[in-house]
Sequence to fold (156 residues):
Amino acid sequence: MRLHVVAIGQRMPAWVQEGWSEYARRLTQGVTLELREVPAIKRGRNADIEAIREREGQALLAAIPASSRVFALDENGKQWSTLELAEHMGEWMQSGSDVSFLVGGPDGLSTHCLEKASGRWSLGRLTLPHPLVRVVLAEQFYRAWTVTQNHPYHRE
Fold:
């Protein structure tokens, strides 16, 4: 099973690359974590934000692997505990299906992205910078995977 994070933005700081790589490397036993970066559209002072969000949304949708189940990272989505994420991950591993997670740009996801998603996931009520979201996702995927493997990384 592959977990795909499809995100707006490229050229992340080194700490983001290192954090992502560390947790992606730890995933084994048939689970792979992949990042698909989509360039952000430049925003000027008088930018049409809705048009930019739509264009970025089209690029995100085009980057989703075929036959992948899609979840949108959305502030209005459902919050999952680590154990709930582990439960979902167990189901995804059982089905063998790939799962993609859409991470929008600074202005969020387009309506089309939200409609394409089979679910919406919120990381909480805090506003997180997009580079940090990547590292949080990678760590949480690893943590949830360790729960499915009865590994002692997660303590609850």
Remarks:
- Helices lie at 14-26, 49-63, 82-95, 111-116, 130-148.
